[in-house]
Amino acid sequence: MKRILTTTGLFLGACFLLSAQETGNNRLVIERKMVERADSWLVVDMTVDLSSLKVASDRSIQYLPTVRRGDSLAVLPPLIVNGRARHILYERMDRDRMENNEFEVYRKNGTEQRMDYHARVEFRDWMKKSELVMAIDTCGCGWEAIGNGEASLFPINIGEPFVLAPLMAYITPEAEAVKVRAKEGSAYLDFPVNKIEIYPEYRNNPLELKKIRETIESVRNDKYATITEVSIKGYASPEGSYANNAYLAEHRAKALSGYVQGLYDFGSAKMMIDFEPEDWAGLEKRLQTIDVEAKDELLAVVRADEPKDLDKKEWKLRQVAGGAPYRYILQTVYPALRHSDYVVQYKIRNFTADEAKELLYSDPKQLSLNEMFQVAQTYEPGSDAFCEVFEIAVRMFPDDPVSNLNAANTALQLGRIDQARRYLAKAPDSPQKRLAEAVALLLEGNLDDAETIFRALENEPSVKEQAIYNQQQVKQKREELN
Question: What are the pLDDT digits (tens) for 108-158?
């Protein structure tokens, strides 16, 4: 039996569990009764106690459970209670209970005896407000027994399912006066020993220079972008004297800056050059990730505050474990420490909501969070399109507190509670976050804790309306469950 279960809208078949009732004087006792709607069916489930029923060996009693409302009725499979001789005859007839859509049981008089009755009938609208009755046929009259000596078992009241639809509190992201973006990378250029000139065809330089050109051109070719600054920072490895490394790092950075300026006209954009004579931070980071002899001793030298003289520090590094580890890192680690980092900074013009709507799916990196929020406002709150905007926003701004809070709200509206909690972990404490946490509890069925939080938020102006409304959601859910 398939049951419909959603999170923002919870559809449950109406269910009624009543105390035992008797049907007429035949002492048939219905201990447990349940009626529910499951998809397109009305399902009836009962436990029948036969213990007080006495049936003569040659007699048979047929019970006809019937759903009735006025002149409309639907008869469920009969329950046939046979005495011993009748049961033997029934068995000899080799009747197929399933094929004949009936329940048959042999009554063993004087013993405690129960059986489960489970049947279904196609659901009709009139059944929403109806009753389940039991007709008793002791004469084999069949349909004529219906309406003659019926016993009413219980009313059926299946209303429209309550749909949980809590209100969320979204935060409007601050608008960016100027949308500043940046693309960055590292180039590992090869220079002949102690040379500062760039040789475009030397060793791996064609590939490294291509990476730089592609980064710059990706911004230059963007019709919405304007380059505002290009910065280059050169690094050398600790090998050799600090003074010589400072000279190499500075002038190699200047050489790369001259190379790119010779290719492009950057207009009024700033050109920034910086250098780090020896990349000791990079050395420490790389040592942590490789397997090398005396690794801890190497790291201890790198991290030590003394000696201040970096040439002496490098000398100490060479002495670790007889020099073998240093020779290894000289070949495997130092080449990566000779690099030039570059950053292309640019600004993007602002967009109208219509422009932003087009870019949202084609090139969302052009948009600010505020522009994405404005796109969302053009859709029906809670709709698929509305929720999708916030899912895109959190992918583009994965660490932004506002994007995570708003994405958590849409996740809850879609019933994705675990996903919502992951987003909320990146959102700072706020009334909006506490409201979302309470909604998660509500959707999980923790009504008491959810209500406590909603009540506490009544005094928060930013979420007061949502908190009061959501308390009504709690109340309606309780009424449905009861």
Answer: 999 999 999 999 999 998 988 888 888 887 554 444 444 455 778 778 877
Superfamily (CATH H level) for 179-346: OmpA-like domain (3.30.1330.60)
Give per-residue pLDDT as tens, 223-274.
999 999 999 999 999 999 999 999 999 999 999 999 999 999 999 999 999 9
Distance CA 163, CA 161 (A): 6
**CA 211 – CA 189 distance, rounded (Å):** 11
Cα–Cα dist 419/416, whole Å: 5
- 3-state secondary structure (DSSP) of residue 146: coil
Mean pLDDT of 422-431: 96
In one-letter notation, the amino acid at residue 172 is T
The span from the CA of 188 to the CA of 287, in Å, is 19
pLDDT reported for residue 4:
28
Cα separation of 9 and 468, whole Å? 19
User: For position 160, what pLDDT does the model report?
Assistant: 67
Mean pLDDT rounded to a whole number for the chain: 88
Cβ–Cβ < 8 Å for 132, 35: yes
Question: Which class for 193: exposed (0-12), middle (13-18), buried (19 or more C-beta within 10 A)?
Answer: exposed
Instruction: Assess contact for 253 and 232: CB atoms under 8 A.
Output: yes
What's the pTM value of the predicted model, to 2 decimals? 0.59
DSSP H helices in 103-241: 205-220
Q: Which class in CATH covers the domain with range 351-481?
A: mainly alpha
- Tokens coding 154: 């219980």
Q: Residue 67: what pLDDT?
A: 93
How many other C-beta atoms lie within 10 A of the C-beta of residue 85? 13
Report the distance separating Cα 211 and Cα 204, nearest Å: 12
The class level of CATH for 21-157 reads mainly beta
Residue 129 β-bridge partners: 157
What single DSSP character describes residue 305?
Answer: S
CATH 1.25.40.10 occupies which residues in the chain?
351-481
Instruction: List phi, psi (to 5°) of 394.
Output: -75, -25
Residue type, 380: E
Residue 11 predicted with pLDDT over 90: no
Q: In this predicted structure, what is the pLDDT of residue 138?
A: 59
Q: Give CATH 3.30.1330.60 domain extents, the chain.
A: 179-346
Mapped onto helix, strand or coil, the DSSP state of residue 175 is coil
Indicate the SS3 state at residue 445. Answer: coil
In what side-by-side order are the strands of the sheet with 41-49? 21-23, 28-38, 41-49, 114-122
Please, which residues have CB within 8 angstroms of residue 174's CB and are 6 or more apart in sequence?
A: 370
Radius of gyration of the chain (CA): 39
Residue type, 121: V
